[in-house]
Specification:
The protein is of the alpha/beta class. The protein has a single domain, classed as 3-Layer(aba) Sandwich (Rossmann fold). About 40% of the residues lie in helices and about 10% in strands. A 6-stranded mixed β-sheet has the order 3-2-1-4-6-5. The longest helix is centred in the middle third of the chain and has 20 residues.
Length: about 230
């Protein structure tokens, strides 16, 4: 896999629909592709589309140990609807214990460095394990989600994880996502109905007010340009 292949794929697939893009990768990278799902609305859309095309497609999620109860509810509903068991990756227990010893339970509020340390232990390290051996990483990223994502392309080379990242919903808007969910009866996180457009760990996610950016509820004590956990980077 290489950056040159990414450029070729972007040219080849630039005018294709989301369905056609996913079909291409599910066919050509059947055993080396996977969706990493946060169980948020976009990832639930992708789960539905992907499993309708390949019921054996790999879908995994990260359980950081600090998720909302509603996130576990949608995980369970997804397993039941599609008759699957999502692959679940957990952080290393020794790393979490050391995190609590060094910066406490809620050290993420004290500095960006401490918050990113927490994200690294709870998200980045498990994600590295989950992506091992894969060539293609499906994500639910959309360009309209935040200022940190406006320049993302359909297909990218992720330097941090050395993998091709396919942002199949990159040009979808919020209405596109929710229309699909309603039309296809897709399970979704009920926190979305309570003003949570973006959902992560419970201590780092809040509802947003009318008129706020849809990512305003993530790490709300930080500046917008810092609001990524490290899962998605160049």
């Amino acid at each position: 896999m290489s950056k040159e292949l990414v450029e070729k794929l972007n040219l080849e697939l630039k005018d294709k629909s989301t369905n056609e893009i996913l079909e291409y990768f599910l066919k050509n990278y059947k055993n080396t592709s996977a969706l990493s799902s946060s169980l948020a609305a976009e990832d639930q859309v992708l789960t539905d589309i992907i499993l309708k095309k390949d019921k054996d497609a790999r879908i995994f999620t990260l359980d950081t140990g600090r998720l909302h109860p509603e996130t576990y509810d949608v995980m369970d509903a997804t397993n039941l609807k599609y008759n699957i068991k999502l692959d679940v990756y957990f952080p290393n227990v020794d790393d979490v214990q050391n995190l609590y010893k060094t910066q406490g339970v809620n050290g993420q509020y004290e500095s960006i460095e401490k918050r990113k340390t927490c994200c690294g232990i709870r998200k980045i390290e498990p994600l590295k394990r989950a992506l091992k051996g894969l060539d293609i990483w499906f994500t639910g990223l959309r360009a309209a989600q935040s200022v940190t994502r406006t320049q993302m392309k359909l297909i990218e080379w992720d330097e941090g994880f050395n993998i091709i990242k396919v942002n199949a919903l990159i040009d979808w808007n919020e209405d596109d996502v929710w229309s699909y969910i309603k039309e296809n009866n897709v399970p979704y996180n009920k926190l979305h109905d309570q003003g949570f457009p973006s959902i992560g760990c419970a201590p780092c996610t809040r509802a947003v007010q009318d008129g706020e950016d849809i990512r305003a509820g993530r790490w709300w004590w930080e500046n917008p340009e810092h609001k990524e956990c490290g899962l998605h980077r160049k």
